[in-house]
Amino acid sequence: MMGGRPLLLLLVSLLYESFDEDFEGRWVVSKKDEYQGVWKRAKSDGHEDYGLLVSEKARKYAIIKELDEPVTLKDGTVVLQFEVRLQNGLECGGAYIKYIRPQEAGWDAKEFDNETPYTIMFGPDKCGSTNKVHFILKHKNPKTGKYVEHHLKFPPSVPYDKLSHVYTAILKPDNEVRILIDGEEKKKANFLSADDFEPALIPPKTIPDPDDKKPEDWDERAKIPDPNAVKPDDWDEDAPMEIEDVEATKPEGWLDDEPEEIDDPEASKPEDWDDEEDGEWEAPKIDNPKCEEAPGCGEWKRPMKQNPAYKGKWHAPLIDNPNYKGIWKPQEIPNPEYFELDKPDFDPIAAIGIEIWTMQDGILFDNILIADDEKVATSILEKTWKPKYEVEKEKEKAEEAAAAADGLSEFQKKVFDILYKIADVPFLAPYKTKIIDVIEKGEKQPNITIGILVSVVVVFATVLFRILFGGKKPAAPVKPAVEAKKPKAAETEGAGSSGDKVEKEEDEKEETAAPRRRSRRET
Predict the structure, then answer these.
(1) Are 360 and 93 in contact, with CB atoms under 8 Å apart?
(2) What global pTM score does this model have?
(3) Fewest Cβ atoms closer than 10 Å to its Cβ: which of 31, 141, 167, 523?
(4) CA pair distance 179, 160, nearest whole angstrom
(5) What is the average pLDDT value for the chain, to the nearest integer?
(6) Within its chain, how far is the Cα of 305 from the centroid?
(7) Where does the UniProt annotation place the signal sequence (predicted)?
(8) Can you tell me whether residue 54 is helix, strand or coil?
């Protein structure tokens, strides 16, 4: 504890827990079977200050501290504040506190669990798409006697780092509630506003009649087909959308007798090929070089064009429905659960409890406070949290600087981890060595990380495209005969960007790779 506990205790009149002393005997750990997580009193990483530690991963935890006297929330200002440090981050779990209302006679604190009724639940919660600082209150409906759970709308997000943070909720007598993180206001709301809580504390005056039924003859169609409309005599529903272009002619130079692909004349049967095990060997296919210089190869067919006579299926035009009555809704009746109030009738706080399920360990709770003066909360924040936070922030900056000096930031490390996994994708095996060379070059020169990422993605996309579409090239325009002897040079002409260079390297790699084996079973 920093700042001197005796002075703080003089200021605090309701509750203050610093964990300077062992919590055993003052806090009660739940004895329910599902709560296997072990609580420990431990130092915050890098400090001499103690807190209450979540010590194990993937466990449920429950612990409670009963107050000497209940804290009323009906009159005056009440401040709820506590400090949490997510030392190992928080991917999925909670780090909130439940402010427990008085329990029935005979209740044992050892029975504390997720069903124990509370008045307010406040604090961080993250998992999947959930990332919020909860503020949930349970309020008793005076008409029904039932408790309803009300959630603060649009709560602030949880800080993403691993530093100490202070969460503060200030409840004012004018029905205002303010949520602060590290002393900075993040959210202001009004308890009685339907815009701030879901559902609203005050129920609606009327509700749809659950017994009201839509009449059978109620017509909700605003438009209907014109019953007097008739399909025109010249409307042909069977006409196709496209027809053959009879005016099209076969391009000059089209090679009808040439296939689009031919056997690679430079390929030879591997020495270790076994016809009995591998089947009859067939040379791999390559694009027919004759087709590259011609407008096309193979059987020529006339292209299709849009059919001017096509009209599709005929439908009668829509007209206004003379029987339209609008969208039916049940009639409104008085809400039997409706009530009015000038301020919430909160149950008092009789205990504070931490009941969470988390996948991360290292969550450290500290400096739990209930006060009736905002200045007290600010004083504790300044004396206990702020010095620690400043030390942690400086350490974080130093670590980031050291990582940059070593050549890789945390982001870059993650990028290269992903790139190495991409290199292990099976269909990239022929290119794995070259990809890894590029990645290693990027690790030595972190400033070109993005370029490396783009290059690997280009390789990945190129290979995937070839797998999906067979690597066929579009028919090339007719070129002078002098160029026909240089098809490879034409392919590489104009390669200047980094992406083009990578594709060029992949073509060279592919040309030097051993011919693939193909059996009759493959065809």
Answers:
(1) yes
(2) 0.65
(3) 523
(4) 18
(5) 85
(6) 45
(7) 1-20
(8) strand
For 258-281, how does the pLDDT look when each residue is reduced to its tens digit (9 = 90+)? 999 999 999 999 999 998 888 999
Q: Residues 197-203: what's their mean pLDDT? A: 97
Distance between CA 69 and CA 435 in Å, rounded? 68
Q: How many CB atoms lie within 10 A of CB 273?
A: 15
Strands 304-306 and 242-244: antiparallel
Rounded CA-CA distance 180/133 in Å is: 10
DSSP sequence for 388-454: HHHHHHHHHHHHHHHHHHHT--HHHHHHHHHHHHHHT-GGGGGGHHHHHHHHHHHHH-GGGHHHHHH
Q: For residue 99, what are its two tokens?
A: 């402010």
- C-beta pairs of 267-271 under 8 Å, 24+ apart in sequence: 267/515, 268/515, 270/514, 270/515, 270/517
Residue of 83, 62, 73, 75 lying closest to 16 (CA atoms): 83
Place of tokens 């409840």: 171
Cβ atoms 139, 124 nearer than 8 A: no
Query: Which residues pair with residue 140 across a beta bridge?
Result: 147
Instruction: Name which of 164, 178, 160, 172 is nearest 122 in CA terms.
Output: 178
Only one residue has tokens 């406040």, namely 122
Q: Which amino acid is at 315?
A: H
In angstroms, the Cα distances linking 435 to 76, 233, 424, 449, 508 are 67, 66, 10, 14, 14
For residue 34 the two structure tokens come to: 């599902």
The SS3 of residue 386 is: helix
CB 62 within 8 A of CB 35: yes
pLDDT of residue 493: 41
**244 CB-side CA count, 13 A:** 5
Compute the average pLDDT of residues 81-110.
96
Residues 6 or more apart in contact with residue 364 via CB below 8 angstroms? 42, 44, 51, 52, 53, 54, 84, 85, 87, 164
Closest CA relative to residue 2, chosen from 14, 18, 23: 18
Query: Secondary structure of the chain: what % helix, strand, coil (to 5)?
Result: 25, 25, 50
CA 114 – CA 116 distance, rounded (Å): 6
In the block, tokens 């209907």 appear at 224
Percent of the chain with pLDDT over 70: 81
In sequence order, the β-bridge partners of residue 17 are 368
